[in-house]
Amino acid sequence: MQTILVSSQKGGSGKTTLVRNLSVAATGDGRSVLCLDLDPQGSLRGWWESRDADTPAMLDRDPVPEALRATLEAAKAQFDLCIIDTPPAAPGWLSEALSVADLVLIPVKPSPDDLRAVGATIAAVDAANVPFAFALSQTPRARITEEAARVLAQHGRVAPVNIAQRVAYAETGATGQGVSETTDDKAAAEIAAVWSYVKGLLNG
User: Fold this and answer.
1) What's the domain count of the chain?
2) What's the pTM?
3) CA Rg value for the chain
4) Tens of pLDDT, residues 36-74
């Protein structure tokens, strides 16, 4: 089983949105996906509980961080991909969570505040020595998006497709859907392209 950890020490960066939509895209691509919500706010679980579909899966209860490694070990028999949502800031257990990941995705909004804050997340990922990539999220059609991509590229890989600021991402948070399950073809195409990129990193 491969494990993706979505992490950013900046609140509001789009972590849960990325987990939701990647998990739906991966499920649609034939993967058996388990989602784990390690954020005490429980936004991912709230979304999942409002879904009509049984997939992607969640456990009856998310593990405490100290039990994460054992939970992943037990899940290997049933799932081939686990995507984990994490809280903002840097809880003491974050390094342990990073250590079990095959890939860390770092969503970043193209704003000066978010770019300044990303250094702490990069440092944590580097310390764990785990592969990572940035994903620009909530992007406007503006020069600042291109500038943010250039800045991030100095520190690591950046997904070649941005996750734009679209109503569908907010709406599906309430309906229990992924954007690929809606009529928003542009949002669906974005997520499909991001998943294709992530899949390539996992298989690389």
Assistant:
1) 1
2) 0.95
3) 16
4) 999 999 999 999 999 999 999 999 999 998 899 999 999
Two structure tokens written together for 109: 């909004």
pLDDT tens per residue across span 23-40: 999 999 999 999 999 999
Residues contacting residue 110 through CB under 8 Å, at least 6 positions apart: 136, 138, 139, 140, 142, 144, 145, 147, 148, 149
Q: Dihedral sign for Cα 96, 99, 102, 107, please.
A: positive
* Residue 183: domain span: 2-92+99-203
What tokens were used for 146? Answer: 């291109």
CATH number at residue 83: 3.40.50.300
Q: And the tokens for 135?
A: 């994903």
Question: Token pair of 97, please?
Answer: 């969570």
Q: What would the 3-class secondary structure string for 128-164 be?
A: HCCCEEEEEEEECCCHHHHHHHHHHHCCCEECCCCEE
